[in-house]
Amino acid sequence: MKFLFSLLALIVLTESCSSTKETVISDSDQQKSSMAKQIPSGTFTIKKMEANENISEELTITFDKSSNKVSGFSGCNVFFGNYTIDGNTIRFGVIGSSKKYCAGDKNTSERKLFQILDKVDSFTIDGNTIILSEGTTLLLKAIQEKGNSKQKTIGGKK
């Protein structure tokens, strides 16, 4: 009887120690992984800022994913800065710009764009469209044209 009990205990211990561990990947881990693959890259033309869908200027935003640098054309001046991404969270660092005088709508568009970049905390990419949001509020929508690597420049120089 003792022998049978000892043999049974030995079998149970051997089997429990040799079982494999399964790794469970949660939905949020899978979402972060797929979002990491969707890091914005290239030049996007801004089509919407907050509720305004009638943007008269060709505003652009360019993401360089190899250096985490952002740049673009804000209606009158070019701008530049850094960004960080973690999953679908995006944060822009201090944004600098050229200092050309801007009057009227160009100045308004530029200030609005810089305010938006300061508030943005997340992004989504759907095909050739990037949406920058604060929480659930859409702040900026931009489209990447096929082969769009143009960027507005100062004096013809990049």
UniProtKB/TrEMBL annotation:
Start and end residues of each DUF306 domain: 38-135
Coiled-coil parts of chain: none
Highest taxon above the source species: Bacteria
PANTHER family, alphabetized: HEAT SHOCK PROTEIN HSLJ (PTHR35535:SF1)
UniProt protein name: META domain-containing protein
Natural source organism: Winogradskyella luteola
